[in-house]
Amino acid sequence: MNTTPALAPSETLAGFAALLRDHGLCVGVAEQQAMLQAAMVLGGPNGPRLNAAWRAIACHSAREWRLWPDLFARYWHPERLRGQVRVSGQTRPQRDLRQAVQQMHEQMDHAAQPPPTAAKAAPQTAADAPHAGAGDSEAGTPRAMGGASRSEPQLEALHQRDGQMWLPQELGALQRLARQITAQLRPLPTRRWRNAHPGQRLDLRQTLRRSVAWGGEPLAPAWQVKRVEPPRLFILVDVSRSMESHAALFLRIARAFALEAQARVFVFHTRLAEVTPLMQRDSATVQEKINAVTAGFGAGTRIAASLQDFARVHARAQLRRGARVWVMSDGFDTDAPEHLADALRALRGHGARITWFHPTRQAPAAAAVRNAREHIHRFVPLASLADLVEARPVLH
């Protein structure tokens, strides 16, 4: 029996396009329209001619070209894949979102294991914490032990959407706003040149090559302009307990910039982890992804240590002049107050411009942030999408 879905409904083709985007293929509205037109001319997806036409439309690299046969068969001919085993004799288990998030937490827990010398140090009590009453500390609860809970029931947050659902028009407005802010980020000039017409400088070598067709006469001059590059954008989102009610908004905004500005997105509480691949995947499980990032994170916030890890390990090769670092946090830090200033000073030393987004109308009042104000370029209140619209003129 043929289980191939019918091609006529445009939503069926949209589902196939979503599968392609999940695996990194750039398939937008224009590609879907071209694929639909090809289907109307060549017939259903069973024919090899339509398969070849769609492959030429959707694939833009050798990696995508190699992925195409498996993705096409998985969606249009799932009955052919049942029970298949790879040549190696090992099956390829499918990982759902829960497993991916759980693995991310396990990797972070493993990376955060203290060295033997640090394990002997006396634990910090709730009275010693700089913000013991700020909501980051809950002594006696499993979630507060070690700064992050590892219990399995907290993965239920993947399906807890109450109060966090966004309407399609709100998501569209956020995406357009991120696109506008990305367009106004000041590009960085470089020493390199690129071909352009009209241009600023004559490309003598290319002009001489073109003159061969005209018997040595330079009738088709080539011009060049200065090459500019967009600034790198890094977004660090606080997902500790004190930020529990704001993390969903911040991660929605971070995801919009990950798609529009190719921003790298990190989350931190007692340690730092990059979630850019999770944010850049465009699929129907966006809400689960947003909730999944905050699932399993618990009490405690080490902002200074996370920023140091970010500068030394994760973004060491990309932090350069003109880079934008957006920190989204309330500023409560369990590290020593002076450590945050040192971490921000190191980021400034790389040439980065630091913008601090906070969920309150007033700037963070934490001692660590007060001591580091001179290293922060701008404070921006961000409690709703309207605040981001209001801050658009200053984000450049």
Short description:
By secondary structure, the chain is of the alpha/beta class. It is built from 15 helices and 9 strands.
Describe the structure.
The protein starts with 9 loop residues before the first helix and ends in a 5-residue tail after the last helix. Helix 9 links the parallel strand 4 (233-238) and strand 5 (264-268). The protein is globular and about 70 Å long. The chain has helices at 10-22, 29-42, 48-58, 62-76, 97-111, 116-119, 168-184, 204-211, 247-260, 276-280, 286-294, 303-314, 337-349, 367-371, 385-391; strands at 188-195, 201-202, 223-229, 233-238, 264-268, 272-274, 324-328, 353-358, 378-381. It contains 15 helices and nine strands. The strands form two sheets. It has a six-stranded mixed β-sheet with strand order 6-5-4-7-8-9, sandwiched between helices. The chain folds into three domains: 10-80; 95-187 and 230-396, Rossmann fold (3-Layer(aba) Sandwich), CATH 3.40.50; 190-229, no CATH class. Residues 1-9, 83-95 and 115-163 have low confidence and may be disordered. With 396 residues, the protein is an alpha/beta fold.
